């Protein structure tokens, strides 16, 4: 199965496809005008970002979905904590039941809100991160003002913060999928760009994600250096840590040896999920691909049960598992793949981040 939105991620396309997408190109013109106007107002000082009295690190992207923001935010929060710097995470909480107000999802020790109230990614972070408070809400400045007196923290991490110009940040980390790059370099809805490539200049550093080899990254790195030569470029990849069951039972990845599995995912980039497992020699019988942030329903349970009869095991992502656990999956052989974002130049990366604290 293939989601139609992945069609937009192609880097090159024949003439007939470009003509087919021409109406979307026309729609991208007013979108681009709005984005450029907004950026211009902040650049010339006609609109000013609000400042919080602490260091603020933003992790974001310039393309839609799938660059690995959540795994990197989790790794960064852990890495800073291990280096004696405590932070809280501010997230918009995409897909949560109510988008109004500020909610404390976790105080760093206790999970305080439900999946529906939090959104899937903040809920996953809250379950996984000890000692890291997590707040959701559209107004990150307000969220920061709530977090600072309530928790003993040194700074704040903005999850998906590159476009949140209304809040000043001391370090802008821009993530770029090394496999996809910028697609065919068109703005939404014609392409995958949330902003023009010229706006890459706001980034303080680039982090290329899902890297398999430095050689394959060279064309993308050359493009980045032409646009923003002073920004350092770092690299990362996903590393599988093992399998997690519905009741948090743990299994090693080698337990999949000799088993036929079916993948279940509702994430922005399902191809990275399947390719990661294939690299570790997992035999994939089929893939069921749902939209990103898909809210699994009771009606999906019958489908999962049917699919489980065709394979030894169903494998999903941790983000999907937190939603699937609301269903009665106790008798379905299903596990989530736990992954971690691994930095290739870890010490140099953290040296750059810690400079602002």
SSE layout and pairings?
Elements: H1 15-20, H2 22-43, E1 56-61, H3 69-82, E2 87-91, E3 103-106, H4 115-118, H5 120-128, E4 134-136, H6 140-150, E5 155-159, E6 171-177, E7 205-209, H7 214-227, E8 233-244, E9 250-251, E10 260-265, H8 270-279, E11 283-289, H9 299-308, E12 313-317, H10 318-324, E13 334-343, H11 346-354
Parallel strand pairs: 1-5, 1-6, 2-4, 2-5, 6-7, 7-8, 10-11, 10-12, 12-13
Antiparallel strand pairs: 3-4, 8-9, 8-13
Description:
With about 350 residues, this protein is an alpha/beta fold. It has 2 domains: about 55-235 and about 340-355, Rossmann fold (3-Layer(aba) Sandwich), CATH 3.40.50.300; about 240-340, Alpha-D-Glucose-1,6-Bisphosphate, Chain A, domain 3, CATH 3.40.120. About 30% of the residues lie in helices and about 20% in strands. The protein has 11 helices and 13 strands. Strands 1, 2, 3, 4, 5, 6, 7, 8, 9, 10, 11, 12 and 13 form a 13-stranded mixed sheet that branches. A hairpin with a 5-residue loop joins β8 (about 235-245) and β9. The N and C termini lie far apart (about 45 Å). The mean pLDDT is about 95.
Summary?
With 357 residues, the chain is an alpha/beta fold.
Mean pLDDT: 94
Based on secondary structure, the structural category is: alpha/beta
Q: Specify the CATH homologous superfamily of the largest domain.
A: P-loop containing nucleotide triphosphate hydrolases
Helix fraction bin: 25-40%
CATH architecture of the largest domain: 3-Layer(aba) Sandwich
């Amino acid at each position: 199965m293939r989601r139609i939105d992945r069609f937009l991620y192609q880097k090159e396309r024949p003439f007939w496809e470009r003509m087919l997408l021409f109406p979307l190109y026309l729609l991208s013109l007013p979108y681009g005008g709005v984005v450029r106007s907004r950026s211009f107002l902040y650049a010339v000082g006609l609109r000013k970002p609000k400042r919080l009295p602490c260091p603020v690190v933003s992790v974001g992207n310039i393309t839609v979905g799938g660059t690995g923001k959540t795994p990197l935010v989790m790794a960064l929060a852990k890495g800073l904590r291990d280096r004696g710097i405590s932070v809280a995470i501010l997230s918009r909480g995409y897909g949560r039941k109510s988008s109004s107000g500020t909610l404390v999802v976790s105080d760093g020790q206790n999970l305080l809100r439900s999946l529906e109230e939090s959104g899937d990614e903040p809920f996953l972070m809250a379950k996984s991160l000890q000692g890291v408070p997590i707040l959701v809400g559209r107004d990150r400045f307000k969220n920061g003002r709530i977090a600072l007196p309530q928790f003993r923290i040194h700074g704040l991490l903005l999850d998906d913060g590159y476009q949140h110009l209304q809040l000043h940040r001391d370090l802008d980390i821009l993530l770029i999928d090394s496999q996809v790059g910028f697609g065919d370099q068109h703005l939404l809805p014609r392409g995958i760009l949330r902003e023009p490539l010229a706006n890459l200049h706001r980034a303080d550093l680039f982090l290329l994600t899902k890297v398999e080899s430095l050689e394959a990254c060279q064309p993308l790195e050359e493009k980045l250096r032409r646009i923003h030569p002073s920004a350092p470029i770092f690299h990362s990849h996903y590393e599988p840590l093992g399998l997690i069951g519905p009741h948090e039972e743990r299994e090693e990845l080698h337990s999949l040896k000799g088993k036929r599995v079916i993948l279940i995912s509702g994430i922005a980039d399902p191809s990275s999920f399947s390719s990661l497992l294939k690299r570790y020699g997992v035999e994939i019988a089929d893939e069921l691909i749902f939209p990103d942030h898909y809210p699994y329903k009771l009606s999906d349970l019958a489908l999962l049960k049917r699919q489980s009869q065709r394979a030894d095991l169903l494998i999903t992502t941790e983000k999907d598992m937190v939603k699937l656990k609301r269903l009665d999956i106790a008798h379905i052989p299903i596990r989530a793949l736990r992954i971690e974002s691994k930095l290739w130049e870890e010490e140099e990366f953290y040296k750059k981040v810690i400079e602002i604290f």
